[in-house]
């Protein structure tokens, strides 16, 4: 799959029509999606109609937007006009169809992009694995015997497999950052509240954020511009940025190759400092409590009448959250406020913080666990070890894939989190692009690897 920037350029230049791009995209998904189970529904009629409109506007010499004809997919909790928003569940199947697109979908469409598919997810976004009892498990395109991560696993797998150049996902405790890391794609969790949540089915509303996935940092910046309306100058000089390497909690149980990749990345930075945050375990616990309480409260009415329709793993966690007493929730919110201040203080001394996104490569489907402190624990619950605490601060985070080690085969993807103060997406994206150009970030799509091996 060509980058979204290239697709839009070729369509505007008349080298290919939007209709041809959409037809090829739909055909590719039909031929290859069964290997990954990333896509849950194709939007053929809508997509082909929109492509014809783009081509007609080009013929008339009209402006078509920076993403003209670019196909994209959405995690199945974004409203699409005329479709029931399932949020990865059968519980909502009898709800009325959406009367309009989610606001962020409308923004991409206004920029010329064309929605072509809905994408698989953990039921109600509660998980880090995209193991869905109703719609099946999404598989990692780099090794289909492994998890794609979640809860936006369909969104990341679609990009990693080269099915789509752009997808939308959501992140409450790491649902953009975890699957991006495991699938080797770029993802952005923007500053809390920057992008509207209108038309997006909530999980834990006070933590929910939506953002894009792409295969390159330049594409990520382009998508962010269309979604936010902000102009991102990614050509700014980043050589003087002060970089903080998160240690302590964020240095535990790391795969050696992940440590080596982070070492290579930070060796290219002129000013690197070590940052250790206090009480990260408590912050993570607070995130667990807040998420469980808000999710449980949202679903309590349906749990009373339709409990057996839920994925059993999701149901049990939501019911537990609904039964939480008030005091732990109040205490968790106090920790959240305190930890947010701690993170804000860290940016008095650094411009960007760097942390691992996960402890290592994607777990196997037949052993969905990770090792923490010498013990095997559930991947579905614990892949967010490094992402959950950072969610409390509401700061922008770029999920960036580490580049393969020089002279070695690509292997499995590994990813890092690049974190900045609120509103500093432009700085993050500029740093990301500079590091990708230096060959330190960025991972080939699975279809590229297959082509090279053929």
UniProtKB/TrEMBL annotation:
Source species: Acetobacter malorum DSM 14337
Pfam families recorded: Amidase (PF01425)
Coiled coil (residue ranges): none
Biological classification of the source: Bacteria, Pseudomonadati, Pseudomonadota, Alphaproteobacteria, Acetobacterales
Matches recorded under InterPro entries: Amidase (IPR000120), Amidase_dom (IPR023631), AS_sf (IPR036928), Carboxybiuret_hydro_AtzE (IPR014087)
Domain Amidase: 21-429
Name listed for the protein in its UniProt record: Amidase
């Amino acid at each position: 799959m060509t980058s979204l920037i290239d697709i839009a350029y070729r369509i505007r230049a008349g080298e290919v029509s939007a209709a041809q791009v959409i037809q090829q995209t739909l055909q590719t998904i039909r031929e290859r999606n069964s290997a990954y189970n990333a896509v849950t529904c194709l939007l053929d009629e809508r997509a082909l109609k929109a492509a014809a409109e783009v081509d007609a506007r080009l013929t008339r010499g009209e402006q078509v937007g920076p993403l003209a004809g670019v196909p994209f997919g959405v995690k199945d909790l974004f409203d699409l006009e005329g479709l029931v928003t399932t949020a990865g569940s059968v519980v909502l199947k009898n709800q009325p169809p959406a009367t309009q697109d989610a606001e962020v979908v409308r923004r991409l469409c206004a920029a010329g992009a064309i929605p072509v598919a809905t994408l698989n997810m953990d039921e109600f976004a509660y998980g880090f694995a995209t193991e869905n009892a109703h719609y099946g498990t999404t598989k990692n395109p780099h090794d289909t015997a492994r998890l794609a991560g979640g809860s936006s696993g369909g969104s990341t797998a679609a990009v990693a497999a080269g099915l789509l150049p752009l997808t939308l996902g959501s992140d409450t405790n790491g649902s953009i950052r975890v699957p991006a890391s495991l699938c080797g794609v770029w993802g952005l969790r923007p500053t809390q509240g920057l992008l509207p949540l209108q038309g997006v089915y909530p999980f834990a509303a006070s933590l929910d954020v939506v953002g894009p996935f792409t295969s390159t940092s330049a594409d990520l910046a382009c998508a962010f511009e269309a979604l936010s309306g902000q102009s991102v100058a990614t050509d700014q000089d980043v050589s003087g940025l002060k970089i903080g390497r998160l240690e302590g909690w964020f240095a535990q149980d790391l795969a050696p190759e992940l440590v080596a990749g982070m070492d290579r990345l930070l060796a290219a930075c002129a000013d690197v400092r070590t940052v250790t945050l206090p009480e990260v375990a408590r912050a993570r616990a607070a995130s667990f409590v807040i998420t469980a309480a808000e999710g449980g409260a949202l679903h309590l009415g349906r749990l009373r009448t339709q409990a057996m329709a839920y994925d059993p793993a999701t149901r049990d966690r939501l019911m537990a959250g609904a039964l939480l007493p008030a005091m732990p929730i109040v205490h968790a919110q106090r920790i959240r406020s305190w930890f947010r201040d701690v993170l804000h203080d860290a940016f008095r001394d650094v411009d960007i913080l760097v942390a691992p996104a996960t402890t290592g490569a994607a777990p196997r489907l037949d052993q969905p666990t990770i090792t923490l402190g010498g013990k095997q624990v559930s991947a579905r619950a614990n892949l967010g070890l490094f992402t959950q605490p950072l969610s409390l601060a509401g700061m922008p985070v770029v999920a960036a894939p580490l580049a393969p080690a020089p002279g070695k085969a690509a292997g499995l993807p590994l990813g890092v989190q690049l974190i900045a103060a609120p509103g500093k997406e432009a700085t993050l994206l500029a740093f990301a692009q500079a590091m990708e150009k230096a060959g330190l970030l960025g991972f080939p799509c699975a279809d590229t690897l297959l082509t090279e091996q053929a």
